[in-house]
Amino acid sequence: MSNQQIPFNKPFLTGKETEYIEDAVMFGKISGNGDFTKKCHAFFQERYNFSKTLLTTSCTDALEMSAILVDIQPGDEVIMPAYTFVSTANAFILRGANIRFVDSREDHPGMDEDLIEELITPKTKAIVVVHYAGISCDMQKILDIADKHDLYVIEDAAQAIESYYTFPDGTRKPLGSIGHLGCFSFHETKNIIAGEGGMLVVNDEELRSRAEIIWEKGTNRSAFFRGEVDKYGWKDIGSSFLPSELTSAFLFAQLENIEKIQSRRKLIWQRYNGALSERVSELNIQSPFVPAYSTNNAHMFYLVTESYEQRTELLSYLKEKKILAVFHYLSLHKSDFFADKHDGRDLPMSDRYSDRLLRLPLYYDLTDAQQNYIIRSIKRFVEEKISDKYFLQSA
Ligand SMILES: *Cc1c(COP(=O)(O)O)cnc(C)c1O
Q: Is the domain covering 17-255 a CATH 3.40.50.2000 domain?
């Protein structure tokens, strides 16, 4: 086993994907919004009570649809975390928005909810929350701020399928169903995959009919096929956001196996956490924090090291042992594209996660033996570092 590299991710196949794709091909309807797309929509509506879902070709597309739907105009301001994927910001930049980046929390890479309100100006139009690692932001706090200032809330729930938020009054809602709009990803690095794929969840009833039009290249084609209008035409701006049936056939095979996929991922996550969290804290390495109001969908197991140097050491230590751990986002406010557009505020927590966060392999097919080997290797790293320290002190 130790001869073979353990990759960071390996896409899991249920075995039904190619069969369903073949079905779609044989059926002769392979463009978008056919039977498999409808089956996927029905799945989400049933399992999560999402009122309106639209599969897209990516979460990036769902975010771009969101920016169109909330009618972002040049000069509008949008608030979001700096520690996120480029698409979260790009979608709004494409409509001419100015982005105000928020720092992350100390206990979690998600945005610090207490820093949002001070960034609101008369030009602010929306708050985009990112449920990092599938762990919910404090949604009650965010909804209160948004209500008070009349702002849209868009959830970048790319990593958050099958994760829930519990409101202070005890009601529990799936992530993606809480803001006006929710965006999911089925990229091959996520829990449920379709190669490239995504979904927009339209929770705000007022945005529903326009969402369908934007989805279908700016036409009312969906209403036409439902027999609601006798011809269809150009109604609005839009683009080709819907995936082909080949994508939704693949996705449907995954969705049918969501419980199996999730229980395996959760088991792996728990084993990492149980075996490592206390041990690594001896080197001041932080393990994931899950607030009481959030569930954990086991999207990611990460560690936050004490320093950039320590992360580099741990990454190369693991690489030597043929274990591919990886870091994550580079804070967007410091990116080549955005640095000169940023308002100059320091975002120390976001920088901290850029410099120190490291993700461990977590995928369905990771075997117990492989995981034990990863755990042992990290424990050995900790032991070696501690004895180094002891040696230096006593020398
Ligand atoms: C993966 C991801 C995206 C992009 O998803 P795609 O489906 O690849 O477009 C956006 N935001 C976050 C937070 C992500 O993790």
A: no
